[in-house]
User: Which sequence fits this backbone?
């Protein structure tokens, strides 16, 4: 394996993990190459990616966002900006593998495309992007659409 400036730690039930560490690093590295100027924290970095059940992500959503319902992705930016092995730790992304499969099936899209969308969404949150008002939502969604189109993935908001 080539030397990389990115590390992504993946956790969850091994039978439900939706990508390998190598795949996640590869996708993230291509995102970094294309968008390093517009997403400023993509240098030497690391983040954690966990795959959870519907019940686990609902519990996290209740505890940390005050919403007692399942969701597809949650992001927890590292506010302390600490470095780990010379890399800036961006934080944690948790994805419900149940939601990835179910939402992809409902929308009649490939589950890996939906997973990549949720991963990009989470990465943008770790880098300070929000969707808490119309303007910030438009900026974030337009960037997601642009990034995903570079992977050949259709606009997820249509």
Assistant:
């Amino acid at each position: 394996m080539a030397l990389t400036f990115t590390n992504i730690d993946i956790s969850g039930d091994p039978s439900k993990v939706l990508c390998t560490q190598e795949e996640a690093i590869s996708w993230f590295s291509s995102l970094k190459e294309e968008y390093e100027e517009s997403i400023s924290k993509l240098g030497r970095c690391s983040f954690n990616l966990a795959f959870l059940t519907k019940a686990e992500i609902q519990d996290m959503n209740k505890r940390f966002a005050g919403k007692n319902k399942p969701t597809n992705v949650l992001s927890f930016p590292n506010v302390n900006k600490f470095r780990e092995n010379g890399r800036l730790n961006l934080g944690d992304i948790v994805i419900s593998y149940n939601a990835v499969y179910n939402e992809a099936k409902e929308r009649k899209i490939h589950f890996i495309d939906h997973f990549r969308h949720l991963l990009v969404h989470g990465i943008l949150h770790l880098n300070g992007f929000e969707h808490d008002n119309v303007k910030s939502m438009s900026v974030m969604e337009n960037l997601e659409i642009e990034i995903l189109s570079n992977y050949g993935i259709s606009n997820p908001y249509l």
The chain is about 45% helix and 20% strand.
